[in-house]
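Notes from the 1:1 (GR / supervisor)

We went over the backlog. Supervisor wanted to see one worked example end to end before approving the batch request, so GR pasted a single chain during the call. The sequence is below; no edits were made to it. Supervisor asked that the structure be written out right there so they could see what the output format looks like.
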Amino acid sequence: MVSSEIPGLPAEPLAQARWLEQPSTTVAPLLLGSILRHHSAEGTVAVRLTELEAYRGPRDSQWPDPGSHTFRGRTLRNGPMFGPAGHFYVYFTYGMHYCANIVCSLEGTPSAVLMRAGEVVEGIELARSRRPAAKKDAELAQGPARLVTALGLGKEHNGCWALSGSAPGLSAEPSASCDWCELISAPPLPSDRVGAGPRVGVSGPGGTEEYPWRFWILGDPTVSRYKAAVPRATTKTAPRAIP
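Structure output shown during the call:
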């Protein structure tokens, strides 16, 4: 549920970074409608965020999340998810796709918002060239891997600053390897326009109604279809006959 008492994303990047220090479950519904713009050597593509998922912390934390990459503790892979806020956490999945998160919460507290779907609102020709399999424009960023592909993000953006300007504490602009991204604020949507429910494809308890941390804009054609996790097949050994 979106609270009208919590202000939306500010316009200024450093203020955005401070705002993102809230838990991802607070941030995610308020980010709906905001625009992530990526400037690269190929050109600029911008996506209006229409579907997001919140992920939180380890089993021994205040907010244990069995669906989170950090549930079993910190690793080299999930390190960027521990902050600071305002950076990307990009990971490889299913041996073929990248997905991107915006890191939230105070540094040391793992929390992130997965960008699940969006509408391409700038650079549509470039997005089409990156997503030739899309049958219509609504499919260009419909799903987390499609969104990353349309935007032109990849593993090189893992741990990079996601907001315009330079990261707090740095005087220089982001390195060329990170290109340049910016997050454009939008007014928070009224609660009757925001859907909430279980996260897509998350197995075990983290994918149940106990964790309704997927948020989307109701009625938006770019939102992906909900799919529950497919239970993994288990191999059972036949009992040995007693001689």
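Supervisor's comment: The chain has one domain: 13-217.
Batch request approved.
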